[in-house]
Amino acid sequence: MSILIDGRKTSGIIKDELRDQVMDLKKQGIEPTLAVVLVGEDPASQVYVKHKKKACEYVGVRSLSYELPAETTEEELLELIATLNGRDDVHGILVQLPLPKQINEEKVLLAIDPIKDVDGFHPISVGNLSIGRDGFVSCTPAGIIELLKRYDIPIQGQNCVVIGRSNIVGKPVSMLLLRESGTVTICHSKTRDLPGVCKKADILVVAIGRPNFVTKDFVKEGATIIDVGMNRLENGKLCGDVAYDECAEIAGAITPVPRGVGPMTIAMLMKNCVEAASKSLS
Ligand SMILES: Nc1nc2c(c(=O)[nH]1)N[C@@H](CN(C=O)c1ccc(C(=O)N[C@@H](CCC(=O)O)C(=O)O)cc1)CN2
């Protein structure tokens, strides 16, 4: 039976570590502050934003909440971001995704000052990651690497297969695995013999957005499986991209859904906020 990689427990440990760092920053006169922007009433986004604000409270980060109506225009949102960019007391800016249709996501992400880009979505942050420079790394991919490290799962020289090539997860996690000297293969809808490619993986990261897509036929004995999927089924239950029970019998270690990668996303957001505030000291 495999090891369960517990994201909820690990995120709790990280948040406790950050709490101490925030206390130190406060002693030096810095109050880490995150602006949280939510446009519209998407129920999932509302839940995630609530969790983020709760995490801020726990860690000691001040959160400023901007909950805007669904009909907010792109101009109005860009204006708010410009104001937040200009405020010295705001260290991080987070715009919850997805945005309503009338707003161009790319334009909005580009408007956030890269030094406040705690989500790591700005093209400059993405570029820094791909050329190995310091910068904010997006939270879910950073959380995946943190989980692997904290569970002593080696990356160097390992065959790492990533299913999914999104800008938010697939591409950045591939860059991070490469930075850790993994041998990385990125798979997508046009990949031939997907089960065969995945079966060679020592580390398999699945971010495809299809419930129970990865079955035991994709998994090498002893492999580590990271499930990034977050699919809400008709019965209201949350389900990952990996058929957990059958894959857990073969894997060496596996993340569950919920309580796997999800909570790590929020812990890494807190980590980025603390880092942004620390940088304001220098
Ligand atoms: N601006 C951003 N928008 C979005 C991001 C992001 O990183 N930045 N990622 C996702 C959503 N997301 C954070 O925003 C997120 C998703 C899931 C979880 C989480 O903890 N999930 C729980 C289950 C929660 C539930 O029951 O619904 C778990 O897996 O245990 C945290 C954050 C898209 N948008």
From TrEMBL:
Keyword Nucleus appears in the UniProt entry: no
Pfam families for this protein: THF_DHG_CYH, THF_DHG_CYH_C
Molecular function terms, GO-annotated: methenyltetrahydrofolate cyclohydrolase activity; methylenetetrahydrofolate dehydrogenase (NADP+) activity
Reaction(s) catalysed by this chain's protein: (6R)-5,10-methenyltetrahydrofolate + H2O = (6R)-10-formyltetrahydrofolate + H(+); (6R)-5,10-methylene-5,6,7,8-tetrahydrofolate + NADP(+) = (6R)-5,10-methenyltetrahydrofolate + NADPH
Domain Tetrahydrofolate dehydrogenase/cyclohydrolase NAD(P)-binding: 138-279
Domain called Tetrahydrofolate dehydrogenase/cyclohydrolase catalytic: residue spans: 5-119
Keywords attached to this entry: Amino-acid biosynthesis, Histidine biosynthesis, Hydrolase, Methionine biosynthesis, Multifunctional enzyme, NADP, One-carbon metabolism, Oxidoreductase, Purine biosynthesis
Positions with a binding annotation for NADP(+): G164, R165, S166
InterPro entries reported for this sequence: Aminoacid_DH-like_N_sf, NAD(P)-bd_dom_sf, THF_DH/CycHdrlase, THF_DH/CycHdrlase_cat_dom, THF_DH/CycHdrlase_NAD-bd_dom
Function, in words: Catalyzes the oxidation of 5,10-methylenetetrahydrofolate to 5,10-methenyltetrahydrofolate and then the hydrolysis of 5,10-methenyltetrahydrofolate to 10-formyltetrahydrofolate.
Assembly: Homodimer.
Protein name: Bifunctional protein FolD
Name of the gene this protein is made from: folD
